[in-house]
Design goal:
15% of the residues lie in helices and 32% in strands. About 4% of the residues have low confidence. It is built from two helices and twelve strands. It is elongated, with a radius of gyration of 27 Å. The protein is of the alpha+beta class and 156 residues long.
């Protein structure tokens, strides 16, 4: 876990910015829908780490973030893939309320892009080419054009 310095305890916020120190300043948005009426935020110690959940009135849980371990003091919460902090604006002014927002489409797109990156990372930069049907060309002799029926790649 990463410990964080709770500057809000010692910082003079008067006249420069607002702060939200309890769950009233935060709520959940999923696919553009505000879930503040149907969900509440809670922190739970689960499996050796602190987890941030959004819990619905019916008891369904959405994992939003985790501390990645336990420690004494205030710990950073790492948001799960697809989650981000957002704010809304009204008539051109940014509102003071914070949201834990999730966009299903953006999350799926990020998963696909991550998988593509993983696959691309496995592709070697160069390949050796061997043509068994035309070995005379490989040896430098002149031959007539021939049809290639198989190509073998050896990864260096």
């Amino acid at each position: 876990p990463i410990l964080v310095e709770p500057l809000l305890l010692n910082f003079n916020f008067s006249g420069i910015c607002g702060r939200a120190t309890d769950s009233n300043g935060y709520s959940i948005r999923v696919d553009g829908n505000d879930l503040s009426i149907s969900h509440r935020l809670i922190l739970q110690n689960v499996g050796g780490e602190i987890k941030l959940f959004g819990i619905s009135l019916t008891g369904d849980k959405k994992l939003i973030g985790r501390s990645r371990g336990l420690s004494n003091g205030m710990m950073k919460i790492f948001l799960e893939p697809g989650w981000q902090f957002t704010k809304r604006s009204y008539q051109g002014r940014v509102l003071g309320h914070f949201y834990f927002s999730y966009d299903s489409f953006a999350a799926k797109q990020a998963e696909v892009e991550q998988r593509i990156s993983e696959i691309e990372a496995q592709i070697p930069d160069s390949l050796e080419f061997y043509d068994p049907t035309n070995s005379a060309i490989a040896e430098g002799s002149e031959t007539e054009d021939s049809e290639i029926t198989e190509i073998f790649f050896n990864v260096p």
